[in-house]
Design brief:
With 155 residues, the protein is mainly beta. 11% of the residues lie in helices and 36% in strands. The protein has one domain.
Length: 155
Amino acid sequence: MKSRKSVSAVFALSLVMANDAFAGCEEFGYFPLTLFNLDAMVLSGKNIFAQDAPPGGVVTEDWKEDHCATTSGASGNLYKSGDGSAVDPRALRGTWTPNPGGVVGAVEYDYAGDPPGNPYTFTLFLGKSGLCWQGADGNVAATGTVQGDAGLPCP
């Protein structure tokens, strides 16, 4: 009986490790920004393409957002960067705050339409393949890349 429990535990652990949804950014080769003496300001004034999956994972959603320039701890505007057409216009979606409350490497998103005062907070990681947002649960929330400078206007 004891060996059956051990085999079951090993099997359960291997399932968890095989499922990318239960893995943190470091498990995919990303490093905390603090190791590079950087903080979440790397997003300031940048256009980011992101998706809701770790490398090689199943993508169910992707998005492009302009992170308007701001200073550490202060909120900046966050725009969905569409193609500019009537079908996919650029639109203000909320705010973002690098290093909220002085927490280096953290980034907070507060989307318009969500209940006020319920922002999403992530730890930002950097790697060869770009950026990784890790949730408070320690799992990958999104991965992405810097596409260039944020669109204008970006107040």
